[in-house]
Design brief:
alpha+beta; five-stranded mixed beta sheet; 10 helices; 17 strands; about 35% helix
Length: about 425
């Protein structure tokens, strides 16, 4: 399987200038290629092929006075930037035609030098790892890398990135074999929330760390200082970096905590099931800040790829599954309940439920039901029969009494009637 390993890089002043030059050239090539294809589309001309576009915006552009400085950076950087444009167009076309599942993909847009993230990507012929532990990048030099862990195999590509906090990162893509863990007989369902970040079906509750809420006071002070600085001044640039670094610390703490919790859950359970939440929709409500602070999507993504890497089972159940309305003991649907109701008693079997634990148990049951059996078929949970005390009258005049369906009116001997006794 293909994995990505991220490391901090510390370039010196000349190397930072060389990286800034590479970022700018990659951005210009991307924008030139996008502009050429847009102009061809507006003029009703045929779609420009990838090879023809590369000859126009890279090979031919280097011979002009306006783009002669493209030769100061590695050609691998320029080719990979243009390949990103090709990928963006293919994803857009696949989304329009329906070949790509999921949310619709927008067409590619122009890049700006004021973007908070600048990056370049190089293949194996544009970089190499020195024996001293340094990373050599073509026409940049040997970069000092902070190796927090060794690479499992030789990387196939590397992406050098600069974030909003002026930190440099090297992200290596490696092809490695899965690390299958020993099989266990434990499975769990996870109910994600805000009061508790995660509630497991075994009753364990994981408190939400709320990293953004804890850093709000300092962020407020830094943002106020940034707003008071004059546009374009050096003091404003310093204030912007301070605010960006504080936001980066919050994101780093959240990511580190997600990694530790997801690894613990994967190691302790053979199968993990979660609910498919509409995070993008919840992010537009009054709870948006708390939803984004929790980072459910990042956490679920970590669970998914770690389960695939370690030979575990991972499943998502539908977001419309009534996990908070069904009794996990007898399976009777008790109806919707407001969020203020944190515990309830089943009217059928009398079981007392904690709302979150009951939802986690229902997620586990639904995940087991959706899991393919030996023949590859899905097995849903059997429906619960009607109780003997549930007597009522239907709209068409039929009456159900004590589990016996009684039909009013004449009986057609050609259509036999099957009576079910509860």
């Amino acid at each position: 399987m293909r994995l990505r390993y991220n490391y901090r890089v510390h370039p010196d002043a000349p190397q930072r200038r060389a990286l800034a030059r590479a970022f700018g050239c990659a951005r210009v090539v991307f924008n030139d290629g996008l502009r050429a294809r847009r102009e061809a589309h507006e003029a009703d001309l045929p779609y420009i092929k990838d090879t023809d576009l590369q000859k126009r915006v890279i090979t031919a552009a280097k011979r002009t006075d306006e783009r002669a400085w493209l030769g100061e950076v590695s050609s691998v950087v320029l080719v990979q930037s243009l390949r990103d444009l090709h990928t963006a167009y293919r994803n857009f076309f696949s989304s329009v035609t329906g070949k790509r599942k999921g949310p619709k993909v927008a067409p590619p847009c122009f890049k700006s030098k004021r973007d908070s993230r600048q990056s370049i990507r190089l293949t194996a012929n544009g970089f190499c790892l020195r024996e001293s532990g340094r990373l050599y990048v073509a026409k940049v030099g040997d970069l000092d890398v902070r190796w927090s862990r060794p690479l499992p195999t030789v990387p196939t590509s590397v992406t050098v990135t600069k974030d909003a906090a002026d930190r440099y990162w090297a992200s290596f893509v490696v092809d490695t074999d899965p690390k299958i863990l020993s099989e266990l007989d434990t499975e769990t369902g996870i109910d994600l929330g805000l009061a508790h970040f995660a509630v497991l079906s075994d009753g364990r509750k994981v408190d939400s760390p709320r990293f953004l809420r804890r850093a709000e006071k300092k962020l407020k002070r830094l943002q106020k200082s940034l707003a008071r600085c004059e546009e374009g001044s050096k003091n404003r640039a310093k204030a912007r970096r301070k605010a960006a670094r504080q936001h980066a610390r919050v994101a780093d703490r959240r990511r580190d905590w997600h990694h530790k919790e997801s690894t613990k859950i994967i190691r302790e359970n053979q199968a993990v099931y979660v609910e498919d939440l509409a995070v993008s929709g919840l992010g537009r409500t009054r709870l948006a800040k708390s939803v984004h602070d929790a980072g459910w999507s990042q956490f679920v993504s970590m669970l998914e790829y770690k389960a695939r890497r370690h030979g575990r089972t991972f499943g998502r159940i539908g977001r419309f599954e009534p996990t908070s309305q069904v009794c996990s003991a007898c399976g009777v649907k008790d109806g919707p309940k407001p969020l203020s109701v944190r515990g309830w008693t089943c009217g059928n079997c009398g079981s007392v439920h904690d709302r979150d634990i009951n939802a986690a148990r229902n997620i586990l049951a639904a995940g087991r039901a959706d899991r393919p059996n030996a023949c590859g078929a899905r097995v849903r949970r059997a429906s619960v029969p009607a109780q003997c005390g549930e007597a009522g009258t239907h709209r068409d005049g039929r009456t159900a009494v004590a589990g016996i369906q009684v039909l009013r009116g004449p009986v057609d001997v050609n259509n036999p009637i099957f009576i079910h006794f509860a």
